[in-house]
Here is the input.
Amino acid sequence: MSITTRDDHPSTSVLPERIRRFPWPFIAENYRYSANVEPANKVVKTEVGEWGSSLIDIDEYYLEELREREAILERDPSRLQFLPHMRPAIWDAITTLLPAMAKDYPDTMSFTKEGKRCRWRNDLQNLDVQFTVGVDDSLPMGPLRFLGSQIQDDMAFLDKREDALWLDAGVITFAADWSIGFDTGMKFHEIHGPVPRITEERIVSRAEQFLLRLQPGEQYRRTNWTMTIDHRLDTSTETYPQWAHDRSTLAEDPNLPERLHLRVEVQHLVCLPHTGTVLFLIRSYLLPLTDIAKVPAWRENLGHVLAELPDDMAEYKGFIRYRKAASDWLLAG
Here is the structure.
């Protein structure tokens, strides 16, 4: 595949922000599961822009996605889960993420702390709140839901005990075909059991050992991807009846290029500084094929990846029925 540089296409400077900031996940014409872990806060250049400079990314969809999260939690409170022993880790996350956001977005956010007394200002929400670390009632909605109201990322908290990782808390409103309500209290290995190939290739075991060795304060990230029909962030198993039928009809839909989105998750792995809990941040981005086609290198790259992907992986990711139609459209140029 020939890669087109940004200099070869000066018109890419007028592409919309959603394309210029999109975290393109592929580095080859094929794809297999891998850990693909790298340090966080490292800028990645793409053919048309860049991404990755901040732990918490805030973009043009900030308020829209937070409104969507709030509506989902109102309809289905089970998307927020925490076991009682995770309270210190949740407060650890608050006092880690809010200062990071204030540092990266000083024009709209600020955080100050004196002892356990904190003040958080978020001008994007016209919010100015004071709270006391460790006192749940000092934050509106409680600490976990409050934190979920400030960042677009989903959050999963992995506790370290018995030489294993356990999913013991989280706010997951934008899941890609899984359920926080079902998985809470499960081991890392159990959660990833259904994923094809990764057990035989020991990817989960290696990933868990890496996470168990993380030291307080360390931050890493990785990307993951799938395909999503329509601009739908919430494809949790709870909503399966609302979107599953589209998988069987999309291949024949003339609007496939507008409806089918590449879904990329930027997953940050943060070892919280005070508790040592691993905070798993999942930020989901959606880009339709029509936008991908505006970048010739991306159009060709995704077309080849979809065509070459083994059937068992395409089946697990849920797009085996329409992946040929998508690949054919992309490679037709």
